[in-house]
């Protein structure tokens, strides 16, 4: 039985061993109970760095974890407080993530997906029986007890979990992870246990085809998709999925939470309880390949976000479950709440497209999902190239008004005309527009060569290119000049503005 101990030192009862993971304010290490040699995972939290709010969250999660004792839930055995540190002793779960295990299998079928979601639903059913709502059910929190074949799936990380009163629906705060948030949470309506079922529906969709039902690099568009329940079962990958599996997904992803299937009802669905005769046994190789790419994308995003969190020393670290990177995609928001001040925002710090482009995901598998990603990457880069061309055209035409519409008023620049000095603002450039460029009646043609665009989050980009300018000199002879340029763009109110410019080589505009 889990107990709270404040007088016994952790080191008196446990021997610490190697590090298993690390968070912003905690470290997870393997430990062994001295009295019986049993292995556990100890999360050691530096309470000196925690705020009063963080202490409340820690106590709430420990209280919730102590209530839950189920084969499909990671169990908290002890919670020990000492001066400056808090020790949480959990099951030692050694099988890694469920999704990582699936891609390593030689055989994976719809029936296997049914068995996985069955165990997940069992854990959710147990939680809901104890009036607990998880609020952050996602692949990162679905683990395997061991590396053995057939190891139990275990639900972890109760950092955002809350207590509810039966079927109570109330506003408990905006919490979760982008693609797994339910419509009612996004609408900021009262919510309760059905939010976990919605997340199960998203997970089941991924288990069957390897990509999520809702996706867009633009968070607003993603949320609009979710609120509208705008998902489908595209060909060819869904053609081989049984109607019963699709039916269960539809019942889980029902927009109205009052009409959404419950965990108990889902466990009685034919696709779950009669899987041997209902679920297909066909090997789903394309799902495995697609899921491998999905995992790579998740891991890279998690690694980048974790690095940012540790570097910036953010407070409000994720759950107290002993595993790194779990809650790092559920970024804590500053929004206040009457019920729960531990509110998770799903705003990612790094663009989904940027992450995907780093991984180099191909569109050879699951075209309905990955082809759209490639198109979005290309479209965003073309947008940056186009706005850069418009800026250069304004320079060539001597159109200072058009130039100022595209540039930030505080534009900074390094350029040959400034003799190596950093220039800030528009006055330096205005001189050339008024005294040279606007009076230049000779034709000027500029070509951007080898443009390289780097997408930096949702609202920033950098473009590097060679600018080749053709013009006619004062003697009527054709000339050309070349410069190497870099521009940094920032999007504000849906409008791209040039905020920094660096030019080397010849002057940006012909001065002859």
TrEMBL record:
The keyword Nucleotide-binding applies. It comes from the Eukaryota. One of its GO terms (cellular component) is organelle. Its EC number is 2.7.11.17. Gene3D superfamilies: 3.10.450.50, 6.10.140.620, Phosphorylase Kinase, domain 1 (3.30.200.20), Transferase(Phosphotransferase) domain 1 (1.10.510.10). It is an enzyme of class 2 (transferase). Residues 14-272 form the Protein kinase domain. Signal peptide: none annotated. Keywords: ATP-binding, Calmodulin-binding, Kinase, Nucleotide-binding, Phosphoprotein, Serine/threonine-protein kinase, Transferase. GO terms for molecular function: ATP binding; calcium/calmodulin-dependent protein kinase activity; calmodulin binding. Belongs to the protein kinase superfamily. CAMK Ser/Thr protein kinase family. CaMK subfamily. PANTHER family: SERINE/THREONINE-PROTEIN KINASE. CaM-kinase II (CAMK2) is a prominent kinase in the central nervous system. This is calcium/calmodulin-dependent protein kinase. It comes from Oncorhynchus mykiss. The lineage of its organism: Eukaryota, Metazoa, Chordata, Craniata, Vertebrata.
